[in-house]
Amino acid sequence: MDFSILPYQAADKKLLEKITSTVREHLEEAEFDLGMLSKELGMSKSTLHRKIKAMTGLTPLDFIRNIKMKEACVMLNARQLSISEIAYALGFTNPKYFTKCFKDEFGVTPTEFQQKSIIKMSREV
How confident is the model at residue 125 (pLDDT cuts 50, 70, 90)? Predict the structure, then answer.
């Protein structure tokens, strides 16, 4: 059976895209939380929690943090902002906590990530 044609699959994908775009709109807001996200999406926190967990396997807070960490990678590779500026731009009020979250997510600090990307880029040239 081809599950990709089931209507709830498309609805879930659309909801996930809406959640992701809403989080991206509020990346720099430190106070943006599950309550604000659920309000913007017009659903209860418990329903949103259940849906995100079912679709991604992550809690909503982990899902939001995951989006922020992916954006951090893009920003770190661009090398236009310092690590502290990136942390603040992603809604973290403490750069040390940002570094901890980044290391928890990827196993390296933001500085190590940048150093590895320089080495990778120099090998590609």
Answer: very low
**Centroid of chain to Cα 110:** 15
Quote the DSSP letter at residue 1.
-
The residues, ordered by sequence, that sit 6+ positions from 86 with a Cβ below 8 Å of its Cβ are 72, 75, 76, 98, 110
CA-CA distance, 85 to 82, in Å (whole number)? 5
- Distance between CA atoms of 1 and 121, rounded to whole angstroms? 43
Is the sign of the CA dihedral 61, 74, 108, 120 positive or negative?
A: positive
State the Cα–Cα distance between residues 86 and 39, nearest whole angstrom: 27
Tokens of 32: 């943006």
pTM equals 0.81
